[in-house]
Amino acid sequence: MHSHHHGINIQALLAHVPLFNELESEEIVRLARGSRELAASRGDILFHKGDLPTGFYLIVYGQVKLAFTSAQGGEKVVDILGQGQTFGEAVMFMVYAQALADSVLLHIAKTAILDELDKDPRLGRKMIAGLSMRLHHLINDVESYSLHSGRQRIIGYLLRDNPVDGDKGATVTLPTNKGVIASRLNLTQEHFSRILHELSEKGLIVVEGRKIHIPDVHRLRTHDQ
Q: Which pLDDT belongs to residue 18?
């Protein structure tokens, strides 16, 4: 991983982060001063579990996996993050972060954020709201692992961006390889592949590499209820 500067506008990027969108421009300027740009190649580890938090990261582009390693040496993927998403502080003690694709990130120093928190209580409220949303998602995940079958979890994942049923189809592009997604859904890769195979045999999905075509969203959604 190395810092590099090919002229990305750090202030503009920070201003577009939902977390910072109520800050005044001079506050953004101060945060930008505490930020540095990092390039990560696919496979690079951004931080290891237990590292002392030095700030947090914003993904300018690319893809990052948060995961931890089990005692048996297996891996559990906690989240797959993409462009515009932030992570850091709260997770560094529990997980490691690895670039799944060549990525550019901004690292925003802890000191810069703490300075702004002292000056503007709205930032603290937004950070708490952001963390609450994350917690809400994590609890939903745990509930899903406990209460839903593997098939229901996969259907839920495929339809997560299609909350409303049309009578039409949809195409979902898996953001990364099936092994990583299986782990994110608490399934083995074999189980994940088997369910995709079953669903495609029933004509509910058509798998084409990473693209999954869903001919009838409503039919897939109601398949396993």
A: 77
